[in-house]
Amino acid sequence: MRTRSSVKLLLAGTFPLALSACGASQDTVAFNTKSNFKSVEECVAAKVPVEVCSDAFMQALADHRRIAPTYDDQASCDSDFVPGYCQITPDGKYMPKMGGFELAMSGDVPRKDLEQAQQQAAVQSGGGGNSGLLTGLLLGNLLSNSGGGGRYYSQPIYDSRDNRGTYTSSTLSRQIEQGKSFSRSTQARSSSSNTYTQATLGKSLGSGSGSVSSTVSRGGFGSQATARSGWGGKSSSFFSSGG
User: 155 pairs with which residues across the strands?
Assistant: First the structure.
């Protein structure tokens, strides 16, 4: 009977990198990562293949036009986001500008490549460890592995202020999770609950499975991934394997 084992790597904001394992070694490690980018240029500068960055941006822009809250006046719109952030639409409504996009990717990488990436990250960081570099090395492996079954999706992000008055950029899904209702938006006022909910976003975004869902290895991405194996932006990552 095969012994169950797990490997988890967690990177979120300023939290330290943690790795835990138990039991016998498994062949692959599941990879999930999310990063926010203000533009395609910032995404490419983070060593993500330009085709992925461009596709993610365009799909996020299409979703933005479909799901962004709209308001009858600029003051109501700005109150949900940041002052001067909203712009008028062709039909006379106000809506927030898209502040960038969240790019999420997932797939499987061989355990041996995880170990190799850890060694490379340690060497290149002078032995001190570098979680961002490790994430990038694993992402490069995912993109270059045509059989890895990797997938990615994107969502638009918006500048706003949280309950403490801190400026931040996040998806509408995240803002709703944190308690925002966008009650002055036309979508909220036309709903039975007078709130803008996950259901308003639609099943794809609200469920966290995004509207962009493509095999990462398509279109020859793998040929560029080796040279573009870095990763940047604001990110969170999770790796696991089990039997």
Answer: 102
**pLDDT per residue over 72-83, tens digit each?**
999 999 999 999
AA letter at 139: L
Sequence-distant (6+) residues with CB within 8 A of 166 are: none
**Residue 124, both tokens:** 């290149």
Whole-angstrom Cα distance, residue 135 to residue 6?
Answer: 18
Query: For residues 40 and 62, is the Cβ–Cβ distance under 8 A?
Result: no
**Nearest in space to 204 (alpha carbons), one of 154, 151, 159:** 154
pTM, entire model: 0.67
Q: Is 100 helix (H, G, I), strand (E, B) or coil?
A: strand
Q: Which of 134, 112, 109, 114 is nearest to 123 (CA)?
A: 134
| Residue burial 120-157, b: 16+ Cβ < 10 Å; e: rest | ebeeeeeeeebbbbbbbbbbbbbbbbeebebbbbbbbb
Which of 3-12, 44-53, 67-76, 124-133 bottoms out in mean pLDDT, i.e. has the lowest?
Answer: 3-12
Buried/exposed code over 54-85 (b: 16+ C-beta within 10 A; e: otherwise): ebbbebbeebbeebbbbbeebebbbebbbeeb
> If you write DSSP's letter for every residue of 26-42 in order, what string do you get?
-SEEEEEEEEEESSHHH
- Look up residue 236 and give its two tokens: 């969170």
Residue 82: both structure tokens together: 């940041």
- C-alpha span between 23 and 29 (Å, rounded): 14
Give the separation between CA 174 and CA 31, rounded to whole angstroms.
21
Q: For residue 9, give the nearest of 171, 137, 127 by alpha carbon.
A: 137
- Structure tokens that stand for 84 in this block: 């001067």
